[in-house]
Design brief:
Structural class: mainly alpha
Radius of gyration: 21 Å
Shape: globular
Bound molecules: adenosine-5'-triphosphate, L-tryptophanamide
Number of strands: 5
Distance between the termini: 25 Å
Largest sheet: 3 strands, parallel
Number of helices: 13
Order of helices and strands: EHEHHEHHHHEHEHHHHH
Amino acid sequence: METENNVKKVMLSGIQPSGDLHLGNYLGAVKNWAALAEEFDCFYFMADLHTLTVRQDPKEFRRRATAQLAQYIACGLDPQKNTLFLQSHVHEHAELGWILNCYTMFGELSRMTQFKDKSAKNAENINGGLFTYPALMAADILLYQADYVPVGEDQRQHCELTRDVAIRFNNLYGETFKVPEAYIPKVGARIMSLSNPTSKMSKSDPTGCVFLMDTPEEIARKFKRAVTDSDTERCVRFDPENKPGVSNLMNIYASVTGRSFAGIEAEFDGKGYGTFKPAVGDAVAETLRPIREEAARMIADKVYLKDVYTEGAQRASAVARRTLRKVYKKVGLVEKPF
Ligand code: ATP
Ligand code: LTN
């Protein structure tokens, strides 16, 4: 039996296979996950049930889910050290998701900015799932009694709602869920689109997006074309308010090279945007090259990927089942006989 002191804290996160992974997903999320495996008990999944809130082409959707798994592994997530799985393979997510829907308020859901953004973008399909999405996300997290949820800045609001739901449930029924915390990096937490630096780089808006599977040539082209600012000084200086384009590129450069903003300003002092943009492109292409090559190798090996997600779902389900059983008991559902 493990004692209280030697049990590792739990990390958990997921990304929707709603498009191919991009630089924002990598710098804001996945890159930071790999380093956590020794210290924490880590669960990472493809949030495929969440992706159904927006209409998908079934064939393409299926391809992306396992391609994303290959990209997780290529980004350094060792399947021996991390539990990697598809959300839809662990039925406890949908089950607890329903129950938590009944403990999440209409007013709370109405305030979510992701819901507002996505309903503005998909005005013809504002479905119930899009609205109640955060209750399923709370279930994803609470099933594993997660301590920390490593995500980018845009997911902070959903993590806060998860905490509120957990606290509400615990107050009603006694200690059931661990109340989790968002774990947000300082640099890279919000990468903006290269073509529109005031909106975030996002899978569902591929313009201005650098994908992990882009070739070095594509990456170079995208950075050369990156929108910079129309200020007159044209120098490389971090000032997100007045120079959003250059500041975004600096954030990216800092994230891939580990340099400070002051160091970057010194490096490009007097050199202007024409030198800076290709330098950022080169640094990004070199960072992504090994990831792209390894992911491509794994995407071709379907048997291997299936072994990984089968084992991952089995391990995840064993943990999720325990929490769900506890919840059934607390709310008064009859214990499952199997
Ligand atoms: P979608 O367009 O489907 O909403 P997305 O590209 O916004 O997708 P998500 O699946 O919502 O990506 O996010 C996956 C993870 O990547 C989350 O932890 C999120 O915070 C992080 N992330 C997404 N976009 C960025 C970004 N531009 N900068 C930093 N982190 C990001
Ligand atoms: N909502 C997240 C994806 C997501 C998630 C989660 C992240 C679904 N379930 C649980 C962390 C923990 C997004 O859109 N990025």
